[in-house]
Amino acid sequence: MYEDVARILISEEDLQRRVRELAQQIEADYQGKDLLLVGLLKGAVHFMVDLTRAMKRPVAIDFMAVSSYGASTESSGIVRILKDLDESIEGKHVLIVEDIVDTGLTLKYILEMLRRRGPASLRVCALLNKKDRRLVDVPLDYVGFDIPNEFVVGYGLDFRQVYRNLPFVAVLKPEVYQRAS
Ligand code: IMP
């Protein structure tokens, strides 16, 4: 797996440091409030685990799985729910935990859907932000790293379901994509 990596974009140390900072910031902002973290499967799993373990306050967690129709590396904005939340979010302070925001289409759809369920508040924490690729405006309340317009893998992010368990965020060698196509 490591031999397929062309370049490490964000090291394991930098990821862990930034995740601890985000955890502290979220703890401070939600002081005295119940907090429900909603992770989007599968990409946000690694981030969610490290983020919650860095928090010293009680938090509830839930997961939602969505898939966007269209080609594998392009978002279409039409989102299908594969797994919905287990619990109602009505009246709760909800923070969506997302791996990466690219065009913003997936997140926009999810935000609109969850807003209709009447949460007390609804915010977003995204580990990675590809600003230059944005097609729709979505508010990001917490961002780990702004990254350039490159396809990245690792720390939860996949290429064809593989490479999620790399401990860093990386760019793959071009031949990996050529092999796959
Ligand atoms: P959006 O709807 O275009 O913002 O797409 C968001 C989703 O696309 C993310 O949750 C990822 O699953 C996937 N995605 C976008 N960019 C990348 C990338 O660079 N690597 C891996 N997955 C990505």
Describe this entry's structure for a reader.
It is a single chain. The chain is of the alpha/beta class. It is 25% helix and 29% strand. The protein has helices at residues 12-29, 45-53, 105-115, 174-180; strands at residues 5-10, 36-41, 60-68, 79-83, 93-101, 121-129, 142-146, 169-172. A six-stranded mixed beta sheet has the order 4-3-2-5-6-7, with helices on both faces. Strand 5 (93-101), helix 3 and strand 6 (121-129) form a beta-alpha-beta unit. Residues 43, 68, 75, 99-107, 151-153, 157 line the site of inosinic acid.
Q: What is the fold's blueprint, element by element?
A:
Elements (H helix, E strand, L loop, with lengths): L4 E6 L1 H18 L6 E6 L3 H9 L6 E9 L10 E5 L9 E9 L3 H11 L5 E9 L12 E5 L22 E4 L1 H7 L1
Parallel strand pairs: 2-3, 2-5, 5-6, 6-7
Antiparallel strand pairs: 1-8, 3-4
Helix pairs in contact: 1-2
Helix content: 10-25%
Shape: globular
Q: What is the number of helical segments per DSSP (H or I, 4+ residues)? A: 4
**Class by helix and strand content?**
alpha/beta
CATH class group = Alpha Beta
Strand order of the largest sheet: 4-3-2-5-6-7
Helix-strand pattern: EHEHEEEHEEEH
